[in-house]
Amino acid sequence: MTPDTDVELVRRCLHDDPAAMRALVERFQSEVFGVCVRILRHSHDAEDVVQEVFVRVFRSLRRWDPARQLRPWILGIAINRCRTALAKRGRRPETVDYLHETASTEPEDDSRELAATIRLAVDDLRPDYREVFVLFHECGRSYEEISTAIDRPVGTIKTWLHRARTEVMERLRRRGLVPADRTE
Prior knowledge:
Blueprint: H1 6-14, H2 18-40, H3 43-60, H4 70-89, H5 110-123, H6 127-138, H7 143-150, H8 154-174
């Protein structure tokens, strides 16, 4: 049996087909979770938001335009739910979710240090830059899909992505992990 197209899957969901609803969640769940965990920087919060995302998706399916792609529409809902969660989080202190990552007795190689520094640099980006960076580099979404998902023009997406990359590279330069530009 061939998998349903997005349009057919939505049609079946709108007719309260439990198998279709399960299939829709399975089709997009891992990507939605990946986006949420990277934006929220906390796996438990991301799990909660993913549930909210799919509740919102099912409530809003009648408003989805079948002429548009379903994936960016769902990712847009995910990003909006993440923004809401971050706003609710406000200034309350974050719980420590990384205690299991205690210092190892083995020296880390440069690639692990580089990956950790990049992760921290991305985490420190302002939220809109981080969203675009995560969607492009970690989720492999195109400029157009990101534009649709966060409801901004493609030009803005390109600008934010460029600025995000520049900020990440600057942090790597300050840490001595990449050479400084010779044009300075």
